[in-house]
């Protein structure tokens, strides 16, 4: 096997790093595989519509009704169930025939859609570098009716579209008792809502919590439609939201153990883990910056939960990862250019300084882990490295004349670089505000960065440095249009000016319930007391 890195701006997307692979540590994996049963709940559609099969929704006068009694479909018609919100799980519906005896089987086409805009898209015309098997379509024969049609595959959807294909002219299918069995690791566990403040912020918080609830399955899934796997960056952001909402530690502990199970002898960790197999498997994908995310996630878990048993068990994994990272520094304390990094989807800017900033944050987290497990010598080592990387960051990446951070050989100035370095806290206190002012003067902060991961971090920087109004404007510019469009969960990627935007060739491959989109719930809850003093009740 080979280990790969992903490069978005190349045709092949994946590049070979080396011949290594990630093998499981049986003892750590055994802990990760302890049983965590999912909670289930039954969801009945809130409304139903019968529409013409060969005419788009936009061209029809759609009449929704809340009466879910038996619906008979005439030839050329299709049915749309609206579950009211995006849920994750399994669907079933009872079908009987009416009219003449069945002279042929029922050929039933189903589409499971998270957004209404997906209903009319033609899957046969989608071209993408992603596997098209992620498209949530099903086509099956039902030989005899009556029957209960149960969809074995798990779906993430709000809308269920059922279309008889090539229907007989002598009899019609009649559909009754639609039911969706939704799953989540936290079930219907309540989260106290925010009080006071603008209604749109409370609505955003609720939508973020719904997103997180759906993505908390056997692991913290990145997206519930796609990829349905455990990614390190996504997990860290989701776990931080969880610590201030559901306050569940069991699932986060499992995810930490899963990543630790596949650390190699050099100290590398996989970027993601597949958990739908009987035995979890690490992807053969490695990103250096994701390795750093593990260290930060472990420190945050320890602080949030107080579970020092887990922190002590996994500290050697984190320390090995950090020893490897620090061994790759140049003589002047910089990480330098790398191709095995992700940071963000954007390929329009140099990421070298952003990676340096993540290294600073990771070394600081390593220092915190040493304190949690009471290892003074380890803490001294981390402190020494912290002085090295912070000093190098100031000398090599900060332009004191511009009051901005630069990146790469061309000394590029980008918003991404400023966000990550300001989160890293490398500047002296007086200079932080000057850098923040220069950033705000140079960049239009409410122009969306497309991915909610970086958009959320931008808002975090602004909250961190007291720019509350600007932080709220950033949240509103990105998440506000989603709420206005009726979103009940947060999207993986979103362009306010282009609701149909997809980096994958079609919205059918976008995930509209994606873990890192829930990050505003964390930001709002850790800042709400300060915000509450500024908000009138409504």
UniProtKB/TrEMBL annotation:
Boundaries of every Glycosyl hydrolase family 78 alpha-rhamnosidase N-terminal domain copy: 64-181
The keyword Secreted is assigned to this record: no
GO molecular function: hydrolase activity
Domain Alpha-L-rhamnosidase six-hairpin glycosidase: 201-495
Aminoacyl-tRNA synthetase recorded as keyword: no
Membrane spanning residue stretches: none
Gene3D superfamilies: 1.50.10.10
Keywords per UniProt: Hydrolase
Origin superkingdom: Bacteria
Species assigned in the record: Lactiplantibacillus modestisalitolerans
Protein name: Family 78 glycoside hydrolase catalytic domain
């Amino acid at each position: 096997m080979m280990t790969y890195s992903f490069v978005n701006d190349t045709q092949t997307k994946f590049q070979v790093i080396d011949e290594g692979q990630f093998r499981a540590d049986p003892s750590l994996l055994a802990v990760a595989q302890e049983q965590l049963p999912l909670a289930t709940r039954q969801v009945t559609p809130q409304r139903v519509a019968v529409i013409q099969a060969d005419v788009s929704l936009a061209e029809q006068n759609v009449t929704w009704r809340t009466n879910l009694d038996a619906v008979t479909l005439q030839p050329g018609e299709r049915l749309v169930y609206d579950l009211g919100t995006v849920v994750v799980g399994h669907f079933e519906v009872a079908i009987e025939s009416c009219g003449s005896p069945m002279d042929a089987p029922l050929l039933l086409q189903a589409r499971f859609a998270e957004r209404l805009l997906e209903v009319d898209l033609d899957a046969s015309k989608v071209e993408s570098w992603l596997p098209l098997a992620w498209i949530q379509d099903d086509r099956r024969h039902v030989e005899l009716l009556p029957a209960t049609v149960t969809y074995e595959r798990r779906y993430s959807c709000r809308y269920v579209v059922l279309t008889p294909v090539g229907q007989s002219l002598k009899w019609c299918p009649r559909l009754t008792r639609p039911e969706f069995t939704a799953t989540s690791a936290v079930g219907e566990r309540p989260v106290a809502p925010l009080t006071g403040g603008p209604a749109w912020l409370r609505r955003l918080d609720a939508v973020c919590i719904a997103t997180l609830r759906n993505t908390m399955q056997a692991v913290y899934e990145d997206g519930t439609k796609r990829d349905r796997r455990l990614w390190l960056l996504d997990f860290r952001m989701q776990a931080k939201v969880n610590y201030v909402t559901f306050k569940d530690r069991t699932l986060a502990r499992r995810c930490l153990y899963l990543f630790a199970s596949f650390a190699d002898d050099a100290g590398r960790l996989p970027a993601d883990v597949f958990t739908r197999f009987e035995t979890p498997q690490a992807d053969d994908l490695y990103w250096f910056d994701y390795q750093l995310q593990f260290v930060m996630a472990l420190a945050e878990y320890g602080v949030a939960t107080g579970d020092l048993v887990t922190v002590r068990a996994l500290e050697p994994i984190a320390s090995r990862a950090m020893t490897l990272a620090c061994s790759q520094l140049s003589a002047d304390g910089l990480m330098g250019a790398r191709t095995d990094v992700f940071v963000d989807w954007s390929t329009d800017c140099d990421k070298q300084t952003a990676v340096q900033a993540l290294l600073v944050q990771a070394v600081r987290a390593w220092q915190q882990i040493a304190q949690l497990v009471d290892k003074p010598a380890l803490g001294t080592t981390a402190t020494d490295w912290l002085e090295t990387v912070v000093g190098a960051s100031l000398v090599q990446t900060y332009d004191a004349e511009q009051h901005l951070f630069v990146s790469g050989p061309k000394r590029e100035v980008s918003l991404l670089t400023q966000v990550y370095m300001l989160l890293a806290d490398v500047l002296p206190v007086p200079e932080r505000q000057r850098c923040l002012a220069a950033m705000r003067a140079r960049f239009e902060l409410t122009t969306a960065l497309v991915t909610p991961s970086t958009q959320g971090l931008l808002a975090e920087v602004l909250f961190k440095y007291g720019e509350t109004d600007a932080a709220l404007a950033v949240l509103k510019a990105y998440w506000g249009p989603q709420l206005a469009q009726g979103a009940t969960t947060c999207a993986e990627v979103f362009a306010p000016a282009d609701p149909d935007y997809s980096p994958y060739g079609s919205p059918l491959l976008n995930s509209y319930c994606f873990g890192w989109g829930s990050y505003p719930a964390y930001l709002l809850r850790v800042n709400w007391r300060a915000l509450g003093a500024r908000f009138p009740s409504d």
